[in-house]
Design goal:
With 105 residues, this protein is α+β, with helices and mostly antiparallel strands. It is built from two helices and four strands, in the order E-E-H-H-E-E. Strands 1-3-4-2 form a four-stranded mixed beta sheet. Strand 3 and strand 4 form a beta hairpin. It is elongated and about 55 Å long. The two termini are 17 Å apart.
């Protein structure tokens, strides 16, 4: 599956637009991770527990986007983006883009 942030894919032509595809995940750290992150926030610097959590969440959201685009019959996603937010102590990540069918020119 080709997944790009651009509107077009060099060397390919969009033959069909399937629609918006997305992958969503909501993650929360365990109590141990929250305690360690809280202690790190006192001294400053990177909070690695949350960095790892968000990296994993982005990869899972991307995997779910690809699954969604495949289910729609697409072989590529253009205009791919991530968005994120928080709800209490949970982090939400959504990967989205336009599912398309492309063919080599």
């Amino acid at each position: 599956m080709l997944v790009v942030t651009t509107e077009n894919i060099p060397g390919y032509k969009v033959k069909e637009v399937k629609g918006t595809a997305f992958g969503l995940i909501v993650r929360a750290r365990g109590i141990g991770g929250d305690i360690m992150a809280g202690l790190r926030s006192v001294v400053g610097g990177e909070i690695k527990e949350y960095t790892v959590m968000l990296e994993d969440a982005r990869m899972q959201a991307l995997d779910r986007l690809i699954e969604n685009a495949n289910a729609m019959g697409a072989n590529a996603v253009v205009m791919f983006r991530f968005d994120s937010g928080t709800m209490g102590n949970m982090g939400e990540v959504v990967a989205y883009g336009t599912a398309v069918v492309v063919e080599k020119e």
